[in-house]
């Protein structure tokens, strides 16, 4: 199994906004729903919205404790996660066979044909775990199947990086 630990500057700049989203109301729509005590299951054309966060899936499980959502598990062909941070930061989108969003620990786990895209930068793997607290991505590929972790990183835009200033030469 091939493992890559990556601290991506800006590919997943969603840590502060995930925390903001958890303070927003959750809206869920689906074809069917069952909710018992601390566990809800939503089936068919599921869409969850919370602040700038959207998750779409075939099936979505919602786990709560003390009337607070602690974990969301979305599965589908594929399940999708979209986060619009701001117009300047752009949209982060992710897809996988399963997406687990551990709200308490601020960890997003993508499993099965996982990929994350932000402003043209891309990371793909069999499994991707993003820890929003420390902004670390752990991407895994199954080497025994010939799969690999793939990344495409876009260069900084000219407006985003500081231009080097050369000191003026004496006498000019």
Q: Pairing-aware structural class of the strands and helices?
A: mainly beta
The number of distinct helices, counting runs of at least 4 residues, comes to 1
**Overall strand count:** 11
Give the end-to-end Cα distance, rounded to a whole number of Å.
60 Å
Poorly predicted parts? 1-17, 160-167
Order of helices and strands: EHEEEEEEEEEE
In this structure, how is the largest beta sheet organized? 11 strands, antiparallel
Rg calc: 19 Å
Mean pLDDT: 80
| Helix percentage | under 10%
| Percentage of residues in strands | over 45%
Q: Can you tell me the overall shape?
A: globular
Q: What report would you give on this structure?
A:
With 172 residues, the chain is mainly β. It has one helix spanning 15-21, and strands spanning 2-6, 27-29, 32-36, 39-50, 53-65, 68-86, 90-102, 107-118, 121-131, 136-141, 150-152. 4% of the residues lie in helices and 59% in strands. Strands 1, 2, 3, 4, 5, 6, 7, 8, 9, 10 and 11 form an 11-stranded antiparallel β-sheet that branches.
């Amino acid at each position: 199994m091939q493992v890559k630990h990556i601290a991506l500057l800006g590919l997943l700049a969603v840590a502060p906004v995930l925390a903001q989203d958890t303070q927003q109301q959750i809206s869920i729509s689906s074809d069917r729903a069952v909710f018992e005590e601390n566990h809800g299951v939503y089936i068919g054309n599921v869409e969850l919205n919370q602040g700038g966060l959207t998750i779409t899936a075939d099936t979505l499980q919602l786990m709560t404790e003390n009337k607070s959502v602690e974990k969301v598990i979305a599965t589908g062909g594929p399940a999708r996660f979209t986060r619009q941070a701001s117009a300047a930061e752009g949209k982060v989108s992710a897809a996988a066979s399963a997406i687990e969003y551990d709200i308490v620990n601020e960890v997003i786990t993508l499993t099965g044909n996982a990929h994350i895209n932000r402003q043209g930068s891309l990371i793909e793997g069999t499994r991707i775990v993003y820890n929003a607290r420390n902004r670390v991505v752990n991407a895994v590929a199954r080497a025994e199947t010939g799969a690999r972790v793939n990344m495409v990183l876009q260069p900084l835009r000219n407006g985003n990086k500081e231009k080097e200033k050369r000191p003026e030469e004496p006498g000019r």
